[in-house]
Amino acid sequence: MTQGSLLRKITDYANRADPYPVYAELRKTPVVQDEEGPYLVSTYWEIHGLLHDPRLSSDARNLNPQAAGALTDEEDTALPPAFLRLDPPEHDRLRRLAMTPFGPPHTPRRIHAMRGELSRIIGELIDGFANHHRIDLVDHFSYPFPVTVICRLLGVPREDEPRFHHWAETLAAGLDPAPDEDAAERRRTTQQARTELGRYLAELIEERRRAPGDDMLSALAAGHGPEGQMTQAELLSTASLLLVAGHETTVNLITNGMLTLLRNPDVLTRLRARPQLATPLVEELLRFEPPVQLLPQRTPLADIDIAGVTIPKGASVWLVLASGNRDPQRFLEPDRFDPQRKDNQHLGFGSGIHSCFGAPLARLEAQLALTELARRLDNPRLLEDPPEYRRNAVLRGPRHLPVAFDGLRGRDD
């Protein structure tokens, strides 16, 4: 494999089911400039260092014109970049405002208090498998579960899911570099989805202002704190981010998790007998099969020297998180799935100031979901391996996961 082929190997759908041999090849040169232009960073310590380096920007407006050419131009829409794509101090201000109604330190028990409701949603979805002996885990569980949860949390009507489903999928697809696709057409469809989702959320926020509820949109719309409140454009951009990111990654985490358990039936049996295994198991899943494989939009604010390479100011930098998670210089036997792994400081939720905003909720959703699926499905087994994967190289996970089982155990069995 030549260096020039690495980027296309990563994005090639033929490697989606198993990208890890490509990553192993990539790690032979920890930092390399691809012939397409971006610098690819593939080893754990180099990725970790850059995630904590204030010289590495998340704001696409800092890219040089050549590097920025293939990226979606969010400036053409009415919405500003979400805080995920901003640098301090604006990133920090908006993230703090968003965190206030979401969790610690301002609302420390919001996620914990959802445990009972999460369990109830999981139970109802699994009850729906009755009289079936095969399901598509994605369509029947992994997608509807986190969508229902994020709708409840934000205050978005669950019955509106058909309206925002296409917008969410389009925005998620917009994260995928897909070098062979028409960049102008991708920009057009992504901008249209952002605009339409923004209009939908604007109507919803106005309703919440008139009749506030116990939900995040109501709290964000009211938003009177020491730092003031978000502008309308910032509020819409943040709400869009939370709605899309709040379910897209968790769908993959749960589906990748069940696929891994079915490939490791001894671990599934242990989880059924010892539900407390769910906590370290989910951490190992985040290392072994992370739902976010890479971060393709970073750029230095100044020249950065790393691993013997100088990455120039304004260049495009891709941080290949999933490769860092399999780095043998950091993890012993990295290609082995080991739920009892010690010192598992993975990159599954990123690291540094941009570490995943929704990590506490995603962890809890995955722990409860996988535990209950393992407990209630009698003799579950894969019907297709490898399954059909989504096209997206960034948000990697099966599009469908056909699973057969002999029956269901009751909720209290």
UniProtKB/TrEMBL annotation:
Pfam families: p450 (PF00067). Keywords: Heme, Iron, Metal-binding, Monooxygenase, Oxidoreductase. InterPro entries: Cyt_P450 (IPR001128), Cyt_P450_B (IPR002397), Cyt_P450_CS (IPR017972), Cyt_P450_sf (IPR036396). This is Cytochrome P450. It comes from the Bacteria. Belongs to the cytochrome P450 family.
